[in-house]
Structures are given as structure tokens and as C-alpha cells.
Amino acid sequence: MSGIGTRIKELRKRHDISQEELAAQIKVSRGNVGDWERGRAKPGADALIALSSYFSVSIDWILNGQEFQTPHMKRWPQTMPGDNITPEDIELLAKLKRLSEKERWKVEGYIDAIAGGSAIQSKKPMEKLSPSPNGEEAAASEGA
Question: Which of 96, 99, 130 is nearest to 113 (CA)?
Fold first, then answer.
């Protein structure tokens, strides 16, 4: 049994659900779950996201038994206080990571304006929002 399969089986047993129940919850076949647990196959990206969300564990833990870590943080939180991270949240984060730094600043400024939160302070000044011709807010550089 592969390490990934062992961890999937451990999670399934810990939550006291059958392969069939897990398969139904994450929308794969029971045979897929069995193949993963026996090490005959590995879950794809969509299945990993679904497993991570369903069991509230990181994809890193499913893949290698360790939590995601960088030099800047000791441990990636499983969830934010009061929140459940969904596959849609992960997909949105992946899209955000594909943006340029300037585009990220614009998105962050827009989110802060809508949510009424304060922007995270950094070395680079936050871009402010200005009204667009159609009445919606659009991100604009301070120097533009």
C-alpha cells in the first residue's frame, strides 16, 4: 500500500465511513478509492482537493504526510477560524497566484474596498480604487 493510500484509508477509518460512502461524498467510483488505498493508482488533482476539503486536511498531508511549510511560517492552518476552506476557495487562490504582483495588488485592494477591511501593510503602497465609467469601482495606481 502506498503512503498516499495508507493516509486515505486512515482518514476514512478515522471518520468511520466505507469506501463506497467516501466515493459518493467526493464524487468518484468506489473502485477509485480502493485503488488508491491499495496503491494501484493515485488520486488526481480534483480528487485531492475533494479529499482535502472533505477530511479538513491539507493536500500536502495526503501526498507526503507533512503539512505545507515555508521559511516564513511554521504551519499552514487547516482552516481559518470560523471558516471551512472549500475546493472553490482553493481554486480562487490558485487563480490569484497566477496573477502578476501588480494584478494581485489590484485584486487585494478591490477585496478590501468591498469587504470594508484594512489592507495588509507592505513595502509597496496599496493601489486605490477609483470609479470606472460604468459606475463600478476599478483598481487604479496612485500614479496613474
Answer: 130
Coil, strand or helix at 134: coil
Is 43 in a helix, a strand, or coil? coil
C-alpha 130/C-alpha 29 separation (Å) is: 50
Q: Among candidates 9, 38, 41, 43, which has minimal Cα distance to 26?
A: 43
Q: Tell me the pLDDT tens digit for each residue of 54-64.
A: 988 888 889 88
Residue 129 φ/ψ, nearest 5 degrees: -95, 140
pLDDT digits (tens, 9 = 90+) for 126-141: 444 444 444 444 444 4
- What is the average pLDDT score of the chain? 75
User: Does residue 119 contact residue 109 with C-beta atoms inside 8 Å?
Assistant: yes
H-type alpha helices, 1-144: 3-14, 19-26, 30-38, 45-55, 59-64, 87-97, 101-115
Tell me, what amino acid is at 142? E
- Model confidence, pTM: 0.48
